[in-house]
Amino acid sequence: MYLITGATGNVGRPLIDHLLAAGAQVRATTRRPATAALPDQVEVVQADETAFPLDGVRAVFVNPAAIGNGLDALLTQAKAHDVRRVVLLSTSAVAVPGNPIGEHHRELEQRVMDSGLPWTMLRPGAFNSNTLAWATEIRTEQVVRAPYGEARIAPIDERDIAAVAGEALLSHDTDRLHNAAPVLSGPEVLTTADQVRDIAAATGVSLRFEEVSPEAARQSMVEAGVPAFAVDGVLGYYAHATHHPTTVSPVVQEITGRAPRRFADWAAEHAAAFSTTH
């Protein structure tokens, strides 16, 4: 049995499909079980930050955003239930000096390591789905406004993160992911303008990219309700990538045996989200 927290999230949901395809038994926690719409063979449990359903669980996938302040309780209970591996969804921002998102996840990673449980820390960079934040501007104005236009990142499809997470869970006894912290990326380095170009090709709509100042971007994100520490973390990540371009990681290929998915293909699959007919 494998426990998946954040079961309906961008990584948790494809992870469940990966595990089911491998014939594994899956238990999933979610804040809204009634509307989770998970496959019938999944055991769905109401999320609780103080108590986790760990009976018979071999390994746990931990999405920090899904468990709130429950990490210490989860680790204590996992140890009592002889869980054989904790797979933590972290971030490649842990390597960016002074990045608040990276510092937060580095502290979470340390708590997992200090627990004495076997672990894998997954450190993906920017998710492809982050670009869905541009959808309204694209639909209404055919424009993307963002800072740090020269930042070069290697955005990753969440399904590729899920595939690596699945292998980390399924091979929990002994393998190269034991007590490892692999950095995950997509297959190519792109600028924001490159991503806008791919969305334009996917939608058949002429789009333009307009660079804005970091200050203007910060104000817009805060006004949209994004927590200030997250805003500073995102902006810091792109500022860093302007001078230190992301390096494409071989890990997805090495672990799954196939190349990670291209952003252009993701954009084609999600074209409707950016379409004026959406």
Rg computed from alpha carbons, rounded to a whole number of angstroms: 19 Å
Percent helix: 40-55%
- Structural class call reads alpha/beta
Q: Give the CA-based shape.
A: globular
- The termini sit apart by 39 Å
What would CATH call the homologous superfamily of the domain at 2-123 and 157-183 and 247-260? NAD(P)-binding Rossmann-like Domain
Identify the CATH class of the domain at 2-123 and 157-183 and 247-260. Alpha Beta
Number of helices: 12
Strand ordering within the main sheet: 3-2-1-4-5-6-8
Number of strands: 9
Major sheet characteristics: 7 strands, parallel
Order of helices and strands: EHEEEHHEHEHEHEHEHHHHH
Could you characterize what this model shows?
With 278 residues, this protein is of the alpha/beta class. It has a domain at 2-123 and 157-183 and 247-260: NAD(P)-binding Rossmann-like Domain (Rossmann fold), CATH 3.40.50.720. Helix content is 41%, strand content 13%. The chain contains twelve helices and nine strands. The chain has helices at residues 12-21, 64-67, 71-80, 100-114, 135-141, 158-170, 192-203, 214-223, 228-243, 251-256, 263-269, 271-274; strands spanning 2-4, 26-30, 43-46, 59-62, 85-89, 119-124, 143-146, 183-184, 208-211. The chain has a seven-stranded parallel sheet, sandwiched between helices. Strand 1, helix 1 (12-21) and strand 2 (26-30) form a beta-alpha-beta unit. Helix 1 crosses helix 6, helix 7 (192-203) runs parallel beside helix 11 (263-269) and helix 8 packs antiparallel against helix 9. The protein is globular. The mean pLDDT is 93. Pfam families: NAD_binding_10 (PF13460). InterPro entries: Ergot_Alk_Oxidoreductase (IPR051604), NAD(P)-bd_dom (IPR016040), NAD(P)-bd_dom_sf (IPR036291). Residues 6-169 form the NAD(P)-binding domain.
